[in-house]
Input
Amino acid sequence: MIRQTLAAAALILALPLGSALAQDAAKPAPAKRQCLFASNVNNYSAVDDRTVNVRVGVKDVYELKLFTRCPDIDWSHKMALVSRGGSSICDGFDATIIVDSTIGPQRCRVDKVRKLTPQEVAALSSKAKP
Output
């Protein structure tokens, strides 16, 4: 009787665990973080007032999506990319862009960071290519 009760309890406990493991196996693997160092950025191009592409090294291009509009970024000839809390920029909250404006420096918080594939870089317009 005790063996039957223990076997039933083990079966009941194993069912939710087994289904949870199956659900975890069905989930896609999380995307690998692709980080950059602000000190390695050597050029940039403002696509619009919420998107900036930066060149890192010779061939890597990262797309930075801004948290809100940064109205003066598309005409500014100078930009500073400042990492917050560390030397690498992996997520949007790791960085702020500073641009000159008519009323002084404007700080624009980065919301998302994404490394573009070589195909995406090749497809960029001349205006969007850093």
Observations:
- The CA atoms of residues 124 and 130 lie 9 Å apart.
- Residues 36-123 form one domain.
